[in-house]
Batch of 2 targets.
Target 1
Amino acid sequence: MRRVGRDACHTVMPSSFAAVIEAAAASLRQAQRVVVLSGSGVSAESGIPTFREPGGVWDRYRLERYSSVPALARTALSRPGELVRFLHDVIEPVARAEPNAAHRAIAQLERHVHATVVTQNVDGLHQEAGSHGVRQLHGSLLEVRDPHGRVIRRLSRAELAAVVTELRRSQQAGRLALPRALLALRPLLGVSRRGAYRPNVVLFGEPLREPDWEDAQRGADLCDAMLIIGTSGLVMPAAQLPLRASMRGATTIMIDPGAPLSADIVLAGKAGEVMPKLVRAAFG
Ligand code: OAD
């Protein structure tokens, strides 16, 4: 992981928010190709917590206990109850989430311009809102993969919700919580006649999903504008995409209430409020 710093000299600073929206809209209108790079902030208004904000996943749970397969195995032995709570708290919001106004506005971009969504999120909400060909750099919680990384099964949100119900029950089982949770997780995690299977999510230290990462880099090289929405940009290699696009001459536009990164145009606000306004301003 590497932190990407703010570079004020690239920031366009028109006087009002309306002027900043118009500057961003003009960039989208002029663009042949747009890449949308999204992070957990785009799904915050769908009720899915972000990672590093107060109340976020890595604020409530220590990253080093959950971020890799060996760490998860150690936590299973030393803190089984906490592991079951973690799994429940991560899967539950995704199981009940629906796309919000930001996901829908992003999907609308495709009607007007060649737009590619590159997401770090594993919640499947861009696809559900209507975006096509979404590159999921960190995989999907709605997919199950075999040891070779092949997707062998897709779960509906209702199937994921059923897993959550069983996970909640397993939390009441005291010392049997972990074995009960493993039973609950069988649609996502286990061993079958074809070998071990697990959720198709990328943990720390694992390679990004392909060809999604290759496509994302090509998209960054070819785009004229990159929308960076709801990501702190702290996790490599996804965080290098805005720099890559910028070095090739693309206009970078960030939508985030915390405005954590440098960008040519910064729209400091919630994605669900700003994105629909931006798409309306750009394309009517
Ligand atoms: P972070 O929690 O690091 O950053 C979330 C960003 O979303 C922050 O910059 C917030 O200001 C912003 N945000 C919050 N609410 C928002 C809203 N309504 N609209 C727009 N932005 C909003 O999460 P990510 O950058 O997504 O990886 O984290 C990247 C990766 O770190 C994740 O994919 C995950 C995590 O560990 C893996 O697990 C491999």
Target 2
Amino acid sequence: MSLKLDKAGEFDSLSASYLFSEVRQRKSKFLGKNGGEVIDMGVGDIAYPVCETVVEALVRASLEMGDNARFRGYPPESGYQFLKDAIARFYVEMGALIDAEEVFVGEGAKSDASSFCDLFGPAETIIPEPVYPVYRDSALMRGNSITYLSGNKENDFLPLPHGLAKTPAIIWLCSPNNPTGSVYGLGGLQAWVDYALDSGSVILFDAAYSAFAPEGYPKTIYEAKGAESCAVEFCSLSKSAGFTGLRCSWVTIPRGIKLGGARLIDLWRRRQSAKFNGVSYIIQRGAEAALSKKGAEECAEIVNIYKKNSRILGGFLKKVTYVGSGDGSPYIWFECPKGFTSWEFFDRLLGEVRLVGTPGCGFGPSGEGFFRLSCFATEERAREALGRLEKLSLWN
Ligand code: PLP
């Protein structure tokens, strides 16, 4: 039966989400025909389990849930105070003045970021590309018009607002970036914050990879002066603490930011109370443990392996082609050799050395001719991948 109702938003304008399914299809077709194995550096999922301190906290909290005196029901929508306090301390340590009441715990930066668009009416949206597709799809679903800014070799995949009209807009920024691994320095972030303040825009800053920012680079948008008046930040424990399967994130909304006469923080609180019932107690205790001194040290050891992988693969690639990603970034972003398109290179890498990555063109038009390798692998796997990359016949 066909419903006699209209579709919501602008679903027709969404392109089919085919990138990873096409990658999977080509990989399984290859394996079906040739047998054996491949190394898959395409997906951005973690390779190591959560650390001991987190596991202990999860177990303790699980036991509490089975205890008459200590079990908990619905959690507070914005998160338990103990976790909001831990997150506020995380910001204070970075020199950012975020307090616990400006923190909202969520179940993943993907859903937080896309849900946040509920707060805005029809608005111009500025999106640098190549891009994590969630910002684009969320804007399109709401029927917002999008101005794409090209990230390319000339601007080191870090577009700036120079020359943009001072029209109020929703601005998406992600640094360290997925897919390009590029990282804004303080000057770049300041340019964006100044532009947002001048134009009455909001910056939605995705800091999901902040743990990977190189020494001396900002880990939070709040390092830029004035960001507390125009920027909302999304952060996640998925990649920094191995929470992709546990699910925990947060949004920080400085209380001074207003939208249509209301405080943005109050609009989000209202939205969450209508549509969200909070993150489980057990997970929040795990998140608190990940942010503790001991937990953070254990998580950093794992992040350091991913960073090392990045240096292992990036070190070689820098000798043979242009590499756009920053030092120790979670994704290596490089130019395909010999003018190959992204998909041509994908097929060649798979066919010749049995290595899978992600074609850059899947993240936006400026990604054509580029390629992404994920560094979320065990060190052993990354070294094997390096051996295969070195054997590829295309480099000279
Ligand atoms: N933001 C970026 C840029 C990402 O690459 C990802 C996941 O790959 C997310 C957000 C989603 O994070 P989460 O697992 O917290 O939903």
